[in-house]
Amino acid sequence: xxxxxxxxxxxxxxxxxxxxxxxxxxxxxxxxxxxxxxxxxxxxxxxxxxxxxxxxxxxxxxxxxxxxxxxxxxxxxxxxxxxxxxxxxxxxxxxxxxxxxxxxxxxxxxxxxxxxxxxxxxxxxxxxxxxxxxxxxxxxxxxxxxxxxxxxxxxxxxxxxxxxxxxxxxxxxxxxxxxxxxxxxxxxxxxxxxxxxxxxxxxxxxxxxxxxxxxxxxxxxxxxxxxxxxxxxxxxxxxxxxxxxxxxxxxxxxxxxxxxxxxxxxxxxxxx
Length: 272
Fold this sequence. Notes:
Blueprint: E1 2-8, E2 16-18, E3 30-35, E4 38-51, E5 63-66, H1 69-96, E6 101-107, E7 113-119, H2 127-137, E8 140-145, H3 148-155, H4 166-169, H5 179-184, H6 191-194, H7 209-218, E9 225-228, E10 231-239, E11 244-249, E12 255-259, H8 260-265
Parallel strand pairs: 7-8
Antiparallel strand pairs: 1-2, 1-4, 3-4, 3-5, 6-7, 9-10, 10-11, 11-12
């Protein structure tokens, strides 16, 4: 095991592990760390955490220092410069008539690089754009193409539930989401009902998926024949969350509701 701290560089960004370097670091402290992109400013979201060595990339980079007032002012200046760079880049994109949409601009902490995030339908030849930007900003330029989910994460917004988007508030990573999850939860397969602002399947389809899968393993299938204390019948309905089974009796076509616990107690269904 190795002791680490967890640092985020964006509000809902991925958590990266660093060596605390014997510093007295508290939760929500701002710190200066060295990354593959260079020196960066981040916020501590995990402290004094012990993780397996296999879960970290060695050698683990150390925290350089706890951020001071000057560092925080530098971050604010970078944000202001990024806003100006955004407008300049949009003008250059229009000038070169490139079929791309600029989403965000970010300065690295040491201003050694400016990163432009954009979306596009296909590959874009932006070599002339990079030359123009490099001449204007006198620093390294990176144009990074992102997907629609990443765009929603950067821009934020309000989802169909009326809350701020999960990806822009707390989701560090995008977990795989499949149409099977919507089917297992008996949701409408209408794309407008199960898609988020990004146009892809909503991330929240995954939240209760494990509970549905666990319940479905225990519950009988629709149409399955069941021998109950009231006679034989077939399953015609399931309430997966409450684990209630509706059984239509063969003898009189009455529909009787049973809980899973009742069927297990009567040894009609065995626990899996």
